[in-house]
Amino acid sequence: MQFVHINDIVIHYDIRRAGDGKPVIVFINSLGTDSRIWHSELPKLAEDYTILTYDKRGHGLSGLGNPPYSIDDHVADLAGLLDHLDLSRVIVCGLSVGGLIAQRLHASRPDLVKALILSNTAHKIGTAETWAARIAAVEQNGIGSILDAIMERWFTAPFRKPENAAYQGYCNMLVRQPALGYSGTCAAIRDADFTEAAKKIAVPVLCIAGEEDGSTPPDLVRSLAGLIPGARYEVIAGAAHIPCVEAPAAHAALIRGFIEQLDEE
């Protein structure tokens, strides 16, 4: 495990280098998860790409800082980590709130971003009212009180069968995240609206939706793709909000195909 002081917190990260000259992919995890959501997918990419994963603030083994957060807080952490590792012109793959962080990183530090993979995300996610209700529920009763509702959005019904040990593991992942980190990031999502900024994205973009995603449905992801000049839009069948868990081969194949196309251009 690797740790570094960035801004006001310690960031937990992992970098797997594939060799000089290999493209670098940075993965940003979703709300209520940590960098382990990518573990099934990474072996399908690690031989050909340098891979950087990390836990955003308030999640996993990274520090809590001072919640509530803004998206800019998360962006400053990622930019600081990339500067620390002397990485630039990376391909940023952000899932859900990770996609918001990726969009804002491009806007604030375009020198760091070669291309964007915006998975199961949007230019604006939810409403102020829905996020206020979720924050209140977590503050009053803990993350466990919203577990079932969240899992219905994250995963398809076949994945959510009680006998699926992986499903039970991801339930554990959610409820074991720091409640203040979770609610603090809910506030960041609540306040983020990148509708106008999306129209100004000037790098190649792949937008990925899960066919059964209950958090950022395909139509919402399609609307994001429609805002971004030249963006490519793909849907993964039989997956919900976290396709890197439910359909890692399909998700990795879309990422690989997108990067190979970049190399040809």
Automatic annotation (TrEMBL):
GO terms for molecular function: 3-oxoadipate enol-lactonase activity. GO terms for cellular component: membrane. InterPro entries: AB_hydrolase_1, AB_hydrolase_fold, AB_hydrolase_sf, PcaD/CatD. Residues 23-248 form the AB hydrolase-1 domain. One of its GO terms (biological process) is beta-ketoadipate pathway. It comes from the Bacteria. Pfam families: Abhydrolase_1. This is 3-oxoadipate enol-lactonase. It comes from Xaviernesmea oryzae.
